[in-house]
Structures are given as structure tokens and as C-alpha cells.
Design brief:
Elements: H1 2-15, E1 28-31, E2 34-39, E3 47-52, E4 59-63, H2 67-80, H3 88-95, H4 99-110, H5 114-132, H6 137-143, H7 149-160, H8 164-170, E5 192-196, E6 199-205, H9 211-220, H10 223-228, E7 235-242, E8 247-255, E9 267-271, E10 274-280, H11 289-307, E11 310-312, E12 319-323, E13 333-340
Antiparallel strand pairs: 1-2, 2-3, 3-4, 5-10, 6-8, 6-9, 7-8, 7-12, 10-13, 11-13, 12-13
């Protein structure tokens, strides 16, 4: 195996692989000495190389070790031991790597350090137990390795920007750190093409860089009912490009026609009508709702739009999402302004 790795390293250097990643995440190119190379986008070190030998009538197939399978073993070890002390040396051992090499490969495959992944997983499991059991929070967090409730509270707020007690009392959906599955079944949603009229929203502007954290604050502070005067109505989240700041702004609120309460700190936001595509996210559970939303957004822009006869219409309308948090159906509607692609 070591000779294969050395040969592969030489070919990587020869071909400048890091600089040839396509927009789709696939490495694919030719070379006088190499017939074809295709790399799994989840892990650029997992691939097959076909070498064209000029003085032979055969080809040699070189398989490089499957890093993904080894990292799956490490993830399985983490899942089994979330309530125990997980040591780096043990994770490296189950993969067969040195500690240094394991750290590098784990980060390459998962985009997280092992410590970050373990922390996110423990916080996710604690969040599930907080709302699904009557056990004291302090008892749950000690079970998952936090040495004090205060340390857990700091970690939870740093992750979700709300307090555990706020989350427990409201039971809103969080973006939880689910177990990483390296072969994920893609989301597939059938859209509807609709014509929308113009409409007006009364909204709060996000003060968070990460949108799910602003939804957490909005839901935990019951801002929807504050705006409506206590009535349950649909909430809208709107993305809008801020040309002056060169960034996306995000707003959450309700239709202005339903506002009958405190509007302190809000602004009005007009959304243009026109041709939109609407996707309803697959129904999910309280715990995987936010992750399902993210997968649906990825499907829309990475799969559906490139393969459809439409394109995103940046000159009219806004991308927005809408749902009712309290109805507990755990599905939302996503709207994207579109236009027919030119011939």
C-alpha cells in the first residue's frame, strides 16, 4: 500500500490536482500518462487512477486507501462513546492512522475537527433529551461529560445563541449537529411554478451571521406573537442582497396585514410578485427539521435549477421561506424568483 501512496503522491504533484477541481466538485482531466482521474467530492484522497503504459498492451489500476470508510469507523466509535471520555489516540487507532494524520483526514472529510464534531453531537443529543424527558438539565449534561451546568449553558448559547432554558420552554426547532453520514440520500422535491402578487411584511432584521441562530432568537422571544398581538400566523424569512455592504441581509416577520401588536425594532419590507418556483420541504421531525430545510435549499440550487428550463431571476423578487412554527408539521415552503432560460 505504501508504494501505491507514493505513486499517487507523485501523480498528484504532477497534475496539480488541487487546482483542477471543477465547479461541480469533481476532478476530471486527461494527461499523456494518465487516461482518466475522477475523485469523490466528499474526500479528494479517495479515487482510482488508470495509467496508460506506452510500452505495454495493458493498463494498471491503482486503488488508494478508502479514507471515507476509515473515518466512518471513527464516527461510529464516537457515537457509541458520546457519554464517555473520547481520546484522540483511540480514534486514530480505529482508523489505523497516526494521530496527526487522523486529524488531517478527519477535517478533510467532515470539515470539522474531531473535538468540534464531538461537541456538536453531544449538544445535539442533550437538546433532544431536554425536550423529550423530564430529567433535570444538570443531570443530562453531566451524563454527556460536561463538568457543570454553567459550562454546558455557555457551550449551548455559543452554538445556538439562545439559552437552554429558553429552548426547553418554547421547544423550537434547532439546527442540531446530527451524526455525519458520508453516503447521504439526496433530497428530491417536486416544485410548483406559481405567480405571486406583491406583498408587504413587517420584519426584524437579523443581527446574526448564521441565519438559524436568528430564527432561534425570533422563536424563543415569541416575536411572531408580539407582532400579531397574540395571533398564530405564518412567519416569513427573506434574503435580500445589500449592495452597499456587499452582503446578504436576512429578515424575519409576518404579513403586515396581520400586525396588531408591538412593532418596536421592526421595519416594513415589500416583496415583489412575479414568477416563482415553490418547494415544500419533506416532512420531518422536530429534531431534523432545520437540517431538512438546508438540504432542500442545496437541492434547489445544486440540482433542480441547473437541470430545469428556469434560472434564478435576480432582478425581481426575493428568495424567501415561510412556515408556522407552532403547527408542528415540520415542513416549510421555499420560494425562488425565476425566469425562463434564454435559448
Amino acid at each position: 500500500m505504501s508504494s501505491c501512496i507514493k505513486a499517487t503522491s507523485s501523480i498528484l504533484t504532477l497534475l496539480g490536482m488541487q487546482e483542477t477541481l471543477s465547479s461541480t466538485g469533481i476532478f476530471a482531466y486527461t494527461h499523456p500518462k494518465v487516461r482518466y482521474v475522477r475523485i469523490n467530492p466528499q474526500c479528494f484522497l479517495c479515487f482510482a487512477i488508470f495509467i496508460n503504459c506506452e510500452d505495454s498492451i495493458f493498463s494498471i489500476m491503482v486503488y488508494v486507501m478508502d479514507y471515507i470508510e476509515h473515518i466512518k469507523n471513527a464516527i461510529a466509535h464516537i457515537e457509541i462513546n458520546l457519554k464517555s471520555d473520547i481520546k484522540l489516540m483511540d480514534l486514530a487507532r480505529v482508523t489505523g492512522y497516526s494521530e496527526c494524520h487522523f486529524l488531517r483526514v478527519f477535517k478533510e472529510v467532515t470539515h470539522l475537527t474531531p473535538a468540534d464534531y464531538i461537541r456538536k453531537r453531544r449538544l445535539a443529543e442533550i437538546a433532544r433529551e431536554i425536550v423529550s424527558s423530564n430529567r433535570p438539565i444538570s443531570e443530562i449534561v453531566f451524563e454527556y461529560g460536561f463538568n457543570s451546568k454553567e459550562n454546558f449553558t455557555r457551550a449551548f448559547k455559543a452554538e445556538h445563541h439562545v439559552l437552554p432554558t429558553e429552548y426547553k420552554s418554547i421547544g423550537n426547532s434547532l439546527k442540531l449537529g446530527d451524526r455525519i453520514e458520508l453516503q447521504v440520500t439526496p433530497v428530491s422535491v417536486k416544485p410548483k411554478i406559481v405567480e405571486l402578487p406583491d406583498f408587504m411584511l413587517t420584519v426584524y432584521k437579523s443581527d446574526e451571521d448564521y441565519t438559524p441562530n436568528f430564527w432561534n432568537k425570533y422563536n424563543c422571544k415569541k416575536l411572531s406573537k408580539r407582532l400579531s398581538g397574540g395571533m398564530v400566523c405564518a412567519d416569513y424569512g427573506v434574503c435580500r442582497w445589500n449592495s452597499e455592504a456587499s452582503k446578504l441581509d436576512y429578515f424575519i416577520g409576518i404579513l403586515t396585514e396581520y400586525v396588531n401588536g408591538d412593532t418596536t425594532g421592526t421595519t416594513r419590507l415589500g416583496v415583489s410578485g412575479g414568477l416563482y418556483t415553490m418547494f415544500s420541504t419533506p416532512q420531518s421531525s422536530h429534531f431534523d427539521f432545520v437540517n431538512t430545510i438546508h438540504k432542500t435549499w442545496q437541492y434547489i440550487f445544486n440540482v433542480w435549477l441547473p437541470g430545469s428550463k428556469y434560472r434564478y431571476a435576480s432582478d425581481h423578487g426575493d428568495q424567501f421561506e415561510t412556515y408556522i412554527e407552532t403547527d408542528r408539521t415540520f415542513s416549510e415552503d421555499i420560494y425562488i424568483p425565476i425566469e425562463v432560460k434564454p435559448c
